[in-house]
Amino acid sequence: MSGAGHEDRDREKHEGYGPQGPDNGDGKAPGVGDGPPRIPMPRSSVEDTGLSLPDATRMPLVPLVLEHDVLRSLLGAWALAACAPEETLAVEEHLGECGACADEARRLREAVELLQRPEPLDLDPTLRTRVLEGCLDRRPPRIPVPEWATPYDAETARLDALLQDFGDSEWHAPVRLRWFEGDEQTSRRTTVAGVIAHLLSVDGLVAVALGLDDPVTGEPKTPGAPTPASRTEAYWRASHFPPTRSVRVPWREQSHNIVRTVSFAGGGSGKLPVSYGDFELPLHEAMLDRAFECWVHAGDIADAVDYPYEPPAPRHLHSMIDLAARMLPEALAARRQAGLAAPSRTTRHLVPAGEPGRSLRLEIEGSGGGEWLIPLDSPAALASAAHEVAHVALDGVEFCQLAAGHVSPEEAAAGQDGDREAIRDVLFAAASLSRM
After folding, report:
1. Residues 195 and 243: beta-carbon distance below 8 Å
2. Which of 37, 141, 322, 332 has the most CB within a 10 Å radius?
3. pLDDT at residue 341, as a whole number
4. Region annotation Disordered: residue ranges (predicted)?
């Protein structure tokens, strides 16, 4: 074996390799100028030369030539958009030629759409109105809803849509009801379910006036003296447990029954009196009042669960603002009788009924806005632009928040001009329209 080893060493020396690697006979590794290496270096790439890479998107796709059974097996992946581009092209060309595969591909695509999870959508608040208008233009209802009942119909439907996906935690989310008593803001803590119970109880005033069951007692009764606050307290006390999601069904059924009943009764039923205990409203105004409160409390609920909520449709919002503006003279007179507002300063006695007197111009800006002249000295006085002593400008939604007791008169961002005392009295009169 020693002889073989000498022969191997001689061969390595002859071929230019030493014990430590290749050399040139002088113990050094071969250089670049000594000829090509035994293991060649890689060729220079496109990046090394600075040339641009070819654009793969501009390269024409060539459909694969596949058998029918293979193309049919790819239909599931094609429906899921999981095929390679060449496979997609081959499948789609095949679908234009094979009716059986085209039918199966259509069914698979429909199945994929059913498997996709629906994403939550914040619908345009006017969508329901526009859809209904489009339907009614083509086919008028056999029994139409009176125009004065449509705001209530729309707002209860919007609130019901907000509630439909609530879980237990949302139904028990804390809500604070706010309103004004005298010149002080007061509040009451409840839950989302408690708010719906409140709406159920107060909407029951309209139900009772229409001869429907009273949700507080469960039996028909004649309108009586209980106020909205006392009815709500009675309903809460009668519940064995705090209200839960179960209150949604009776509230929604009652709202449907109210709209259905006034629709069958016709427009003439709008003059039917509805008692609120210490005052009355005709049915057409009571329905608008209930729509206003439904929207306001829907906003309270949306705030409690941190969800956006849009104002009513412009024409409905305008009707709500108009009702509040028309109620201001009576509210101002009530505050004056209670010593909470400045007495009339025109003469030593009130302005005779039908005679022009001092007036305030209420300008409501934005969607649903307009202008109203408010008589200051007597509800029976005639508002007159010639006797205008003050001018107040408010955003429409902010005015509604003021009338709902959610914004104090001092905090209302009002543009004011003229008699400051008259302006203060009207703003506080607007806040006094609120109640629990």
Report:
1. no
2. 332
3. 81
4. 1-52
The residue behind tokens 């961002």 is 413
pLDDT for the residue numbered 225 = 65
Beta carbons of 207 and 255 less than 8 angstroms apart: no
Answer whether 0.90 is exceeded by the pTM: no
**Number of Cβ atoms within 10 Å of the Cβ of 128:** 16
Element (H, E) at 137: helix 127-138
The CATH number, out of the four listed (3.40.50, 1.10.8, 3.30.70, 3.30.1050), of the domain defined by the range 316-343+352-432: 3.30.1050
Residue ranges of the chain that CATH labels 3.30.1050: 316-343+352-432
Instruction: Give 86-90's long-range contacts (Cβ < 8 A, gap of 24+).
Output: 86/61, 86/62, 89/61, 89/63, 89/64, 90/63, 90/64, 90/65, 90/66
pLDDT at 18 (0 to 100): 41
Rg (CA), the chain: 40
H or E element in which residue 330 lies: helix 314-337
- Cβ-Cβ contacts under 8 Å for 72 (sequence gap 6 or more): 101, 104
- Taking the C-alpha atoms of residue 277 and residue 225, their distance in angstroms, rounded to an integer, is 4
Q: In the chain, where does the domain assigned CATH 1.20.120.450 lie?
A: 147-310
- The overall average pLDDT reported for the chain is 82
Look at residue 108 and tell me whether its pLDDT is greater than 80: yes
pLDDT, mean of residues 244-254: 94
* 59-84 pLDDT per residue, tens: 566 668 888 898 899 998 988 888 88
Q: Which of 282, 90, 30, 304 is nearest to 189 (CA)?
A: 304
Q: What token pair was written down for 198? A: 């409140």
* Alpha-carbon distances, residue 266 vs 87, 110, 143, 145, 148 (angstroms): 65, 46, 9, 8, 11
CATH fold for domain 147-310: Four Helix Bundle (Hemerythrin (Met), subunit A) (1.20.120)
Q: How far is 426 from 158, CA to CA, in rounded Å? A: 31
Q: Which of 64, 123, 59, 62 is nearest to 91 (CA)?
A: 64
